[in-house]
Structure of Lipase:
Amino acid sequence: MAYSLTFMFRLILLSLGLTANNSLNLKEDQTSTGHGDGICKSRLEIYGYECQEHHVTTEDGYILSIQRVPNGRSGTGKDATTKVPVLLQHGVLMDGITWLLSSPDKSLGYILADSGYDVWIANSRGTKYSLRHMFLSPSNSAYWEWSWDQLVAYDLPAVVEYVYNQTRNQKIHYIGHSLGTLMALASFCEHRLLDMIRSAALLCPIAFLDQITSSIARASANAFVGEVSYWLGLHEFNIIGRSGDELLLQVCNQPGVNCYDLITSFTGRNCCLNSSSVRVFLDHEPQPTAMKNMIHMAQMIRRGTIAKYDYDSYEENMKHYGQAHPPAYNMSNIPNNFPLFLSYGGRDALSDSNDVRHLLKMLKCHHKTKLKVRFLQNYAHGDFVMAVNAKQLVYDPLISFLNLF
Ligand SMILES: *[C@@H]1O[C@H](CO)[C@@H](O)[C@H](O)[C@H]1NC(C)=O
Ligand SMILES: *[C@@H]1O[C@H](CO)[C@@H](O)[C@H](O)[C@H]1NC(C)=O
Ligand SMILES: *[C@@H]1O[C@H](CO)[C@@H](O)[C@H](O)[C@H]1NC(C)=O
């Protein structure tokens, strides 16, 4: 059964490719994009980009890989010391490939390098290229003892500080997708890292989650919160592994969840995907994460709050936070003059437009010249990183915004 569900999942994902463009060749070898080779080899060097592999160790011992693309495709602006660094942070169940899913003229990672930026691509703990730890292995349950609170407290500061040091203390433009936006918002509202960051562009902002329309995400949240201790006992969450199979078994039996169109039930109906990008996505993603991270997001979906992980126990919360309830992240505390670019989609089932408007309400005192909002009626969650027209609709305006700061 486990095998058949995993198989079904891949088949459904493939069918998405077929609907995006009927030319998908099912016989093509899965290794065609060389996903065993690392991000530099498989997605950058094949197109003629110089790429460097870097590593940074977080305060709690995770060894994260970072890819740097210092120059454009033609080597434009080589050795220029004035290049401004841009850090790209992916979301949950994804990794740095997020920014390199399409061809060099269509994906943001390449476009930024070709526009003269010094591009740095982060990979969060637990994803394929950031699996190492100083003394734990992913087969230890302790390895998976974290939620996005720790991505905010440890991963993001380690990566930002590393890039800042490597670029001789140049302030960084931050670009996040999905959970990569919450990592930034949560840091900024605690006034962390702001001295090293120039501006932030947030694609599919995730902050409030209670209006989420993704039937799969909502049903999953109910399953997780309903049986927390059972799910926590699995430690690692992997949609193409045992935990994913068990979840799909529960969730797909619920009324209103259409598992035959899994991606659409999860992300919303993407308007503009190309089957080649979908195939790159399938070759590399999805990535595992900590079960605790999934449960933390489930708490946000169910409660409508943005707070630290709730241990659901007076003693445990007292031990970790010194108070009975987990402390909230207050989005209104983000400094009003910090440059923010937000882009969200009308069909996004994860970053729902009502939730984004709730976030914008919290930012209502933000200086008008420092906040640019771009709404795309037809876009869903995947379009922001994979759509064939994302350059025109999102990245060109985004880069104009960066150029202001
Ligand atoms: C999809 O991407 C491939 C590879 O980059 C390209 O050859 C093809 O023209 C694209 N199709 C569309 C509809 O953009
Ligand atoms: C960055 O540089 C500072 C000051 O030299 C140093 O204390 C810190 O450990 C460095 N951080 C990283 C992640 O390289
Ligand atoms: C959040 O911060 C704002 C502005 O700093 C403040 O007015 C508001 O009371 C805070 N909200 C909560 C729930 O603490």
Remarks:
- The chain is about 40% helix and 15% strand.
- Residues 5-403 form a domain with the Rossmann fold fold (CATH 3.40.50.1820).
- The radius of gyration is 20 Å.
- The pocket of 2-acetamido-2-deoxy-beta-D-glucopyranose (ligand 3) is lined by residues 330, 332-333 (CB under 6 Å).
